[in-house]
Design a protein that fits this description.
By secondary structure, the chain is an alpha/beta fold. Helix content is 46%, strand content 8%. The protein is built from 13 helices and six strands. The chain has a six-stranded mixed beta sheet, with helices on both faces. Helix 1 (5-15) crosses helix 2 and helix 2 packs parallel to helix 4. The two termini are 17 Å apart. It comes from Actinacidiphila acididurans.
């Protein structure tokens, strides 16, 4: 089980009331919400291995160099690329990291890469079925029924997870999972600052990718003298050449990240009980932490 950790603690932050606070009044809604989320995942799916994948770099320079608008709207004005995170969430992230470390849940982040890339690499080398837990549809490109790679997508809270396999992607987007990245590049994604091809929305992007199999096929069709595309679509694809030259690398999840060697085995007891007790007292983690520890103990 691979957790897109930031995606999940953002959801926890917005899903758990900010009135959930530590003894000193500091909000800990994201911390406790994430712990409850992981407890539910462990209980419901009993993974033998689990990794909390982290954004060591939420907006890697190599992606920005290729498409300068990449995630620009999330950058705090006047900063050198700091992410716009709610004021009451930012202080909770180090607490989340410290708690996961004290429990013994493996955290992996690699400088210069996003959590998506860590997930892509770990799923590529996995020898067992993989469950990717994320609220980011970009990771649909990793779904592979033949290898048992699926996405668990939170719809509402921790108790409503959609299991996304190849059939689900085909039914919703009319493209195969292995076509999803090309489809997304063609369509664009305002939430990530990806412009896409002007005039080509989701329906048309799916139609073109299905007809020509991949982005290279769409571009080849547009370049043919006897065009297989309507004049408007042909011109749109040709005009977007510079964007389409680099979009697949930006949209595509890296699968060759230098991930450090680490044990991914799910702990049945805390790695550092004293540190965990101190954190529990300091931040008032109460029932959320206890539920996760009980779920982990049950796996042992």
């Amino acid at each position: 089980m691979l957790l897109d950790t930031a995606s999940l603690y953002f959801r926890a932050y917005y899903g758990v009331p900010e009135s959930v606070r530590a003894p000193d009044g500091t909000p800990v809604n994201a911390v406790r919400g994430l712990l409850d989320f992981i407890a539910r995942l462990v209980t419901d799916h009993s993974p033998a291995e689990l990794v909390a994948c982290m954004d060591a770099d939420w907006r890697p320079a190599w992606r920005v160099d290729l498409i300068p608008s990449y995630k620009t709207h999330r950058v705090v004005t006047g900063t050198e690329g700091a992410e716009d995170v709610p004021d009451t969430l930012s202080p909770q992230v180090p607490v989340i990291e410290a708690v996961l470390d004290a429990i013994g849940i493996t955290r992996i982040g690699v400088p210069g890469y996003e959590a998506d890339d860590v997930i892509g690499t770990l799923s590529a080398v996995a020898r067992t079925p993989v469950l990717i837990v994320t609220g980011d549809r970009d990771l649909y490109q990793l779904v592979d029924d033949s290898r048992g790679v699926r996405v668990l997508f939170p719809r509402k809270g921790v108790g409503d997870l959609e299991v996304v396999d190849e059939e689900a992607i085909l039914a919703k987007y009319r493209v195969r999972a292995d076509q999803y990245a090309d489809f997304a590049a063609l369509r664009g994604d305002p939430s990530d600052g990806l412009p896409g091809v002007k005039g080509i929305g989701e329906k048309t992007a799916a139609e073109l990718i299905t007809r020509f199999d991949d982005l290279a096929g769409v571009r080849a069709a547009a370049a043919e003298p006897l065009a297989k595309l309507t004049p408007a679509r042909r011109r749109a694809v040709l005009d977007a050449a510079d964007y389409l030259d680099v979009a697949p690398k930006v949209v595509g999840v890296a699968r060759d990240v230098p991930v450090p060697a680490a044990t991914h085995r799910l702990p049945s007891e805390p790695a550092d009980p004293a540190a965990l007790l101190a954190l529990a007292d300091r931040w008032g983690l109460g029932g959320s932490l206890n539920r996760l520890l009980e779920a982990l103990a049950a796996t042992g």
